[in-house]
Amino acid sequence: MKNFLLIAFLLVGPAALAQKFTVKGKVVDDKNSALPSATVLLLQPRDSTLVSFASTDAQGTFDLKNLNGLVLVKISFVSFEPFYKTIEAPAVPGVVDLGTIVLKTAANALGEVVVQGEQDPVRIKKDTIEFNAGSFKTQPNAAVEELLKKLPGVEVASDGSVSVQGEKVQRVTVDGKEFFGNDPKLATKNLPADAVKKVQVYDKKSDQAEFSGIEDGQRTKTLNLELKEDKKNAVFGSVMAGAGTDSRFQGKFNLNRFQKVKQFSVLGMGNNVNTQGFGIDEYLAFSGGLQQMASGGGLRIEIGPNSAIPLNTGDRTNGLMRTYGGGANFNQSLGKNTEATGNYFLNHLNHDVRHVLEREEFRPTGNIFLNQTGSQENTNTSHRLNFAVDHKLDSANSVKLTVNAGLSTSKGVGTSVSRTVNAAGEFQNSGDSRNNTTGQGGNATASLLLRHKFPKKGRTLSLTAQGSLNQNDAENLNYGVYRFTERPTETIHQYRESETNSHSYSATLNGTEPLGNRRYLEASYLFRQNRNISDQKVFDLQDGERLINQNQSNRYNSDFQYHRANVNFRVNRDAFSFAVGPGFQHSDLIGYVRQKENRPVQKSFDNFLPSARFNYDFGSNRRFDFNYETSVQEPSVRQLQPLPDSSNRLNVYVGNPGLRPAYQHQLRANFTMFNPTSMISFFARGFMNYTTDAITNSVTYGAGLSRTSQPVNVRYSRISGVNLNVGYPVRKLNSRFNVGLSLREQQSINLIDNSATTTENRTVGGNLRYEYRLDQKFEVSLRSDLSLQTTNYSAEGSRDQQFLNQTYTGEATVYLPLHFHLNGVLDYLVYNNPDLGFRQNIPLLNVSLAKQFLKNNTGELRLVAVNLLDKNMGINQTASANYVQRETMNSLGQYFLLQFTYTLNKHLNTMGSRGGGIRIMR
């Protein structure tokens, strides 16, 4: 690490010491009127390489700092002829003032503006930065993700997530339309770079702000891909198939048919090499949630017995996975006033995980030690359908209908063998269990949004009505033998049926009223009702007969409904805006348990819910946001059910109908800065969540050290954190650095044997990333991630824990003659727990060699070697309220794969990736 930092300093040092100067000026038209948002480019005269760019402010002025050497200034504005001027660096550092620059009206300004020949690589249009994709060369058949890596100010992380100007992109559209919902990676990983004409980056206003015309300070970093004209009436995509050793296989495809008023895409994948294929959001939707994932090679700290803080999940998945998935997406313009969009996904996943777990539990009467081995094989099949239509009735009214539905089936087989001893090594209990589970479920949600604008500007009214249905059925066959020292051996052989039905409906009314001088009153009212019915029947299997177990069978009904009203006072100004106001919520919880006798539960809660939001725009791409909100979280059905779940005699769970809703305060503060001159980006983010009546689990130990867990309310829980990141390029070295720092603190109260304990966790993390690109010849990236977690316990007998997690990654790609390219990735993972004397180093090496061939390089043959050193291992370390544990899991071993990829593109233009005469280097 020290050597890496020394090299980085030596690389950056000479460039930092070079003499710098500033170029400034003012841009006006031929009538001497200022031209705001004119694009100012600084190019290297010898090859038109982009040095920097900016835009003029409201007065038409610009100021470009930290320049050196000979530069070519190009200033352009729509409908005006561009201005060029070559500037030499002054003898002494200072300011080169170009004075007032007059742009002449273009000859074709009266008609449609047509740009021919050389095109600007970057244009700034008000709040939008637009990149000309043709100016950024990519390899044939490259995905959009590879194009984004070459754009100034754009970062692509190892997991495929995209950040622009230091902010994470939350939404990617294609020609302004949604592409497979809200997962940006589905577009960036599946669409070809050759199809893109322009990449536009902007902060999208909220739907409410766009409708009402009232700025509310809520923005979403959005990236829009504008397609080339010939791709809007073409079929394009790619197909990949691969096979390898140990019967490994991988395949995927995507096909796209885009037109000006219609978009249609299909994609599919299948493999047994633990590749997700789609974005993580889609994967989670496919697999039914995080419970199907094992965060391989990662380290996590778990503060509460029922919640974990993932600190480094990594990009690997433990166990062995076989997955198939496919989907279709469409967007259709039905006339000028109607837009329709929809998508469908199907996924089938088989996941086989085998683990070995070692745990030390802290108890005032003496610590105990658990060793467990187990296996779990789950098979899930899911379908998901989304559809929306948005129709403008007229200039003042619109209606939007959104429908989401899903179906799923699951099957699981699990085994577990455990043994617990005390500090002296004396036997305390053991368990040997097997279970088989099958389940199926369905859900559907529909919402209708009606919006109306009144003649008075700023006066609006909207109504949202929503309803949802959920049903889940499961069957479980469980067999277990449990041995104790202080009580007789118990054998369980049970069959369990459970049926859960829930439905909810809500209505929300929102209104805005202008008060003059850009001041507004915002009011909202929400009514929502959630109804849950849980019916569980448990049968003891004896001598081939099923006997109902009345103590564990029950039916639980609950109704949770609330009324919420909010009023905000908003003030908008050119540089800032703020909104502040009170809110009030009245909640009613009504439920009863049907067991041997009816047991009613009825409670009411009143909560004050204030909120505040403040935004300040400093100009020059600097922005500060602050947000404070309060919310109420009601208990889940399982947390409220009072009957015990004793299917595992060593770990019994029982609900608590006396739970109160948790009340949460949330504070968020963000500062972002991006300098288009130096391409330096910086962001700082801080947050704090403070919860009163927080819900946690109380753990008690019975005879034979069996555990019983029950959710309870505690006084509070708190979590806070800060993230800092700075990115900056070194253009002379074709390099870019990113440095990040994160701090996180969490405190919670837990009950162990009815004794309250406080657990504090502090995490300090940092990362350093270096990227180097030499045209289309060589690329290298180095990354270091470190995370130090310290957990302190107030309970007597507990041992404070300290984990150190380190990941070092190096990746290099060499582009060889004859369309060959070689890629290698080395991950070196270090897991360290000094308190337990544990240290594990895991080197992972992947290498691939690819050859592109066929006409226009539409074919690619790739040989891949995965886990070449055969050292893969899954490790999780966890520190919780009263225990620390280490878990090792099976992982995919070494294998080799031969892949063939064919790109379908009827309108392939071999010069499409070269653009005009301007070349870009980050």
Automatic annotation (TrEMBL):
Its main location: membrane. Pfam families: OMP_b-brl_3 (PF14905). Residues 1-18 form the signal peptide. Residues 452-799 form the Outer membrane protein beta-barrel domain. It is found in: Cell outer membrane. Keywords: Cell outer membrane, Membrane, Signal. InterPro entries: Beta-barrel_TonB_sf, CarboxyPept-like_regulatory, OMP_b-brl_3. Gene3D superfamilies: TonB-dependent receptor, beta-barrel domain. GO terms for cellular component: cell outer membrane. This is Outer membrane protein beta-barrel domain-containing protein. It comes from Rufibacter quisquiliarum.
